[in-house]
Design brief:
Structural class: alpha+beta
Largest sheet: 6 strands, mixed
Protein name: STAT6 protein
Pfam families: SH2 (PF00017), STAT_linker (PF21354)
GO molecular function: DNA binding; DNA-binding transcription factor activity
Subcellular location: Cytoplasm; Nucleus
Keywords: Activator, Cytoplasm, DNA-binding, Nucleus, Phosphoprotein, SH2 domain, Transcription, Transcription regulation
Distance between the termini: 61 Å
Order of helices and strands: HEHHHEHHHEEEEHHEEH
Helix content: 40-55%
Number of strands: 8
CATH superfamily: EF-hand
Shape: globular
Number of domains: 1
Length: about 230
């Protein structure tokens, strides 16, 4: 006889997300010679970062993994702690409850449900954009405002939606005639939206978007992702 890898039996598709969380946690954090079904309740945050990165790269099938600033945002999210430095999180440990039991503050979903939605969206619709590093993605709305507030009119960047599962939104600067700036967030696009019209074409459509942060003309950044417009009878 031999012990199998973890298996979760589900009776409905809506349990798929929680099943994946259980399997991921067991695969990543169980000891080889453990008693069956015994897994650590808490794990070091650094180990969690490695696991999320490996999962992201494998699922999306990209060589471009998560960066330090992405881990910082994810730590703030999972711990509900807006500490100002990455070092504040280095020696912390994260629990199973924080990963996939406790609902995120002000939301209707857990950290894993949100992260899994990002995975699915990126895999289905954004792989090439992510691999070309055109999407910052894991960044808070507050930090986006800080980054963009001093930029010229029409500067924009792409981030994953905080309020919706599996959504990507465009934040852009509108600068008034008096020089004051305002950062607008466009309604997030879901996988369904992007299957109807691709992200590149949507960015081309929006005249108020000019330069991808920090300063790349949008046609230069996204030109290879535009689809040729069909004309006439087509």
């Amino acid at each position: 006889q031999v012990l199998s890898l973890p298996i979760v039996v589900i009776v409905h598709g809506n349990q798929d997300n929680n099943a994946k969380a259980t399997v991921l946690w067991d695969n990543a954090f169980s000891e080889i010679d453990r008693v069956p079904f015994v897994v650590a309740e808490r794990v070091p945050w650094e180990k969690m970062c490695d696991t999320l990165n490996l999962k992201f790269m494998a699922e999306v099938q990209t060589t471009k993994g998560l960066l330090k600033e992405h881990y910082f945002f994810l730590a703030q999210k999972i711990f509900n702690d807006h500490s100002t430095s990455l070092e504040d999180f280095q020696n912390r440990s994260v629990s199973w409850a924080q990963f996939n039991k406790e609902i995120l503050p002000g939301r209707g979903f857990t950290f894993w449900q949100w992260f899994d939605g990002v995975l699915d969206l990126t895999k289905r619709c954004l792989k090439s954009y992510w691999s070309d590093r055109l999407i910052i993605g894991f960044i808070s709305k507050q930090y986006v405002c800080k980054l963009l507030s001093t930029e010229p009119d029409g500067t924009f960047l792409l981030r994953f939606s905080d309020s919706e599962i599996g959504g990507v939104t465009i934040a852009h600067v509108i600068r008034g005639k008096d020089g004051s700036s305002q950062v607008e967030n466009i309604q997030p696009f879901s996988a369904k939206d992007l299957s109807i019209r691709s992200l590149g074409d949507r960015i081309r459509d929006l005249g108020q978007l000019r330069n991808l942060y920090p300063n790349i003309p949008k046609d230069q950044a996204f030109g290879s992702h535009y689809n040729k417009e069909q004309t006439g009878k087509d």
